[in-house]
Structures are given as C-alpha cells and as structure tokens.
C-alpha cells in the first residue's frame, strides 16, 4: 500500500455487524469509500420477506439468497458471530479481532440460519417436500409470517387443509383492526381454519398421532406444523460490551436523530434493533442504512454535524402478501385488499428491486 493510500485509509475503517437487510446495504454502499469489514454468522444475505414463497416454490430462493461476496466485492467478510465490542475493536466467536473507526450494528432479530447459501436452499427444498407430502398443515402464529405462509399454501395447494392458531385476539396485530379483519375474511374464503385467542401444545402430538391440542381444548389434526412466531431481538450479547448502557428496557438500542448510538459519536445502529417507534419493516431498515452511510461519509470527510442527515419516521404503510396475486395493503389513507395491492408486492415480493439496490441483476438466478 502506498503512503498516500495508507493515509487515505487512516480513520476509514468501518465494521458492519449483521448481514441482513440493513447491514448488507450499508456494507455495499460504503465499500468504495472506506475499508469495510462485514461480520455475519452466515455467508449470504436473505431477502427475508420473500422466504414464505420459497417454502412453496424452492427455486424462488435462487434469487432471494445472495452470497455477500456478490454485492460486497471490495471489502472483507468475517463469517462468525460478533461476541464483544470494545472502544476500538469487535471480537468474533472464532477469535477474530477487527479494529474500527466507525461501527454499524445491524443484528436485527435472533434467527437460526444455516451458514452457507447451499444449506439454506436445501432447507427450503425440505420444507417444500414436507408441505407437498402432507394433507393437512398446522401454522402456529398469526403475525405476518404465519398469515403469509397460510396464504401461500392455500393458493398453491388448495386441496390441503390449513389451520392457523394465534394466541392474540386478532391476526396481524402490527396493523389496524380493519386490515386484520380483511385478512381473516380472505383466509376464511380460502378455507383456512383460523383459531384466535388460543395457543397450541406442539408436544401434544406424538410421532404416530398427529392430533394437536389447543389451550381452549380443541383438537387439530395435522400431518406437519410450522412455528411462525416473532423472534427476539439480537441484542442480548451487547450487555457484555461497552454498549451495555445503550439498551432500553426492551433490549433495543437507543439512537439519536442521526442513528448514532446514545452517547457515541462513531457507533451507529440501524434496522429492527433500534428503539425508533415505528413498524419494523425491510424498506424502513434500508432507509436507516442510507442515512447512516451518508453520515459516516460526512464524518470521514471531516464535515461538521450540520451536514449530517437526520432520520425521521415517515407515514407508515404495510403490505402483507396473500399468495401470488393478492395482497393486503394498509396505507395512511386506506386499507385495501385484493389484486390491485397484489400488483405492488405479491408477484415478485420486491425481490428484483432489492437485488437492484445491491447492484445485482434483478432477474438473474445463479448467485
């Protein structure tokens, strides 16, 4: 490295922890302006909101699972979970110590992902075979994942008996009541049995006996089941780091209007892990990434605080896909269900658009 290049890199070491929606975009956007290291337990990024389609059409995952190296060619990937943060370094489970001038925390929710893209593709194939070979399917959880999976199965396999059990009083508690009722009616129209205000004892069905008991005393016969309940935030590990005082009572990272972590000038948090009072959604996580990246670039170039971008939560919208043609859309001004909102999301699930923001061919299958 030449002296000029060395001085250019001084003060430009950026570490991004987490390779999900927010972290992958931040690493991609910074790779030619800084010396970037992406730390992630897996080798790939997944367009998570498209995962339910991949369970009924495994080949769909060819475009939704993207190796980090495909969009992040000018940086370093450390494939290991981060376990500690000091004032100057991030330490990973496999013992790597990575120094930083700027740090971006984007660890989202805890989820068990296989390490390689090929393993994840195989997992979708296995889940598809499980659905295909079953006459009846039980889905536990009536949030967006449970509702979208029930819809995908009901549309692609209309002959199968689908039951959805949710412990809450209505589906999709993150959206308004009107939207929840519309989702309930749509599922009912597709012969999905929806049971509210109850939980299921998944251990109540032994191997030979495929009958599950609910907390309300009902029995459900199902050849297989899928658990679609919310995952906890991936922030517990921060309690043993220098950022232990930056968490609120719910384990969310407290950030300022520039998305910097409370009382830190050079540490940012983006995506679901932040304490910003808004819906936790993919398009919002990408907006966070854009703001944090702009601010890191301003700081690296010695710009003052006045030049930094601020993040303001906007008017919220939510789109829940209902199979291949229909969607439920909640806009600030209206709630709509059917094929018109379906045109926005359901056919491609924003996969082409998300690939494009990472500099990839929207339609290319092999990654």
TrEMBL record:
Gene3D superfamilies listed in its UniProt record: 3.50.50.100
Example of a GO MF term: oxidoreductase activity
Pfam hit, one: Pyr_redox_2
Domain FAD/NAD(P)-binding, first and last residues per copy: 13-281
Function: Putative FAD-dependent oxidoreductase.
Protein name: FAD/NAD(P)-binding domain-containing protein
């Amino acid at each position: 490295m030449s002296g000029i290049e060395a001085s250019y890199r001084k003060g430009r070491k950026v570490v991004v922890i987490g390779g999900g929606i927010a972290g992958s975009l931040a690493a991609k956007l910074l790779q030619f302006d800084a010396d970037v290291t992406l730390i992630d337990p897996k080798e790939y990024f997944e367009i998570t909101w498209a995962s339910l389609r991949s369970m009924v059409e495994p080949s769909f995952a060819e475009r939704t699972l993207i190796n980090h190296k495909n969009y992040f060619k000018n940086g370093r990937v450390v494939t290991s979970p981060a376990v500690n943060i000091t004032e100057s370094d991030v330490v990973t489970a496999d013992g790597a110590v990575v120094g930083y001038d700027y740090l971006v925390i984007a660890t989202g929710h805890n989820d068990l992902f296989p390490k390689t893209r090929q393993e994840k593709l195989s997992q979708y194939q296995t889940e598809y075979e499980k659905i295909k070979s079953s006459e009846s399917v039980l889905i536990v959880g009536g949030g967006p994942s449970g509702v979208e999976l029930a819809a995908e199965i009901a549309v692609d396999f209309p002959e199968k008996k689908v039951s959805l059990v949710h412990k809450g009083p209505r589906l999709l508690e993150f959206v308004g009541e009107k939207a929840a009722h519309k989702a309930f009616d749509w599922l009912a129209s597709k012969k999905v049995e929806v049971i509210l205000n109850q939980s299921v004892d998944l251990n109540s069905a032994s191997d030979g006996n495929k009958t599950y008991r609910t907390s309300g005393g009902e029995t459900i016969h199902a050849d297989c089941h899928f658990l679609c309940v919310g995952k906890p935030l991936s922030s517990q590990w921060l309690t043993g780091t220098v950022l232990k005082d930056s968490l609120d009572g719910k384990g969310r990272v407290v950030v300022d209007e520039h998305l910097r972590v409370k009382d830190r000038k050079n540490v940012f948090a983006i995506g679901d892990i932040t304490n910003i009072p808004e819906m936790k959604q993919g398009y919002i996580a990408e907006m966070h990434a854009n703001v944090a990246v702009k601010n890191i670039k301003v700081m690296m170039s010695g710009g003052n605080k006045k030049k930094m971008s601020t993040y303001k939560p906007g008017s919220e919208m939510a789109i829940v896909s209902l199979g291949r043609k229909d969607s439920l859309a909640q806009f600030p001004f209206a709630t709509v269900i059917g094929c018109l909102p379906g045109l926005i999301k359901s056919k491609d699930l924003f996969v082409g658009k998300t690939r494009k923001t990472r500099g990839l061919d929207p339609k290319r299958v092999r990654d």
